[in-house]
Amino acid sequence: MDPTGSLTGAFPRIQENAFMGAIFFLLALAIIVAVVRIMLRIHQSQRFDVDDGFLALAVVTLCASAGVLHAAKNLIYVQVRLSLGLITAKTPALLNELLYYHKLEEAASVLLWISIFAVKFAFLFFFRSLIQRVRPLEVWWFVVVGVMVLAACTCIPLGFMVCPDFSSSFLKTCPASVIVQRETVYLDTTVCIDVLTDLLIISIPTALLWRVKIDLRRKIAIGAVLSLSISMIAIAIIRVALAPLPNDVTDSVWIFFWQFVEAAAAIFMVSLTAIRSVFGHKKAERSSRKAPLSQQYVNMETLDKSGSHGYKAEVGDAV
Hints:
Shape: elongated
Number of strands: 2
Mean pLDDT: 79
Number of helices: 12
Strand content: under 5%
Distance between the termini: 62 Å
Low-confidence stretches: 1-9, 278-289, 293-318
């Protein structure tokens, strides 16, 4: 009886061609949506804002991570099969390939976390302009930014904790039992930080819903953003919760696939939110031009005298 028979059925859950095909498909969509978003924002405001810069960083690092994963596409499967005991012959050539994969794995992890946190910061700076006249939310925004910086400084380099040795003797300094323990700590820590930071970002538009009087349609728009954010949390949990394979082996293919999905989906979300903002501003401008001149004068005078009215109008146009 083959003792590895049950393991063969558990892996791979994502075939190699499907893995790379989905990654490049998501990458293409992310690039298209991000470019459209940035072009519309520049056309509207005639400047390149901070959130646009973070979005560009997210796209660039996502492209780089796709390239690294493409270079490691065969070795990811080899590494998992070796951990499961499906490959038993450890030849010198195989050990060299594992060392090369170890380097690619850490590079892909760092790039994906940079992409994910760049989108988080893009969201924060996108919301910054909406809360400038509300002191409690401004203070909370700075608190969230501080937490986000600490979270990014933790998650991005944390993968090196699993095995910081990149020499040819890394298998001796990082035995399988140690790697399993460190991987568990790494995955549990990063998913908790990922979910926590998503909840902190969600708290800002949630506070806007309570503090600002806007119509039902715009509340639905903000609700859609919140729903997408919740879906990001679900992706993060799925990435880690379903990663374990038999014998305490982590499915690296599963981890990288869902982390890439999370990064790409985050780019979609922040891009679509900003595109919605651009069309909201354009609609407001058209409505203002169509209003009688006397009414426009009254509206401008009212907005100048009342910061809260101006704030409500700005938030309404942005969402």
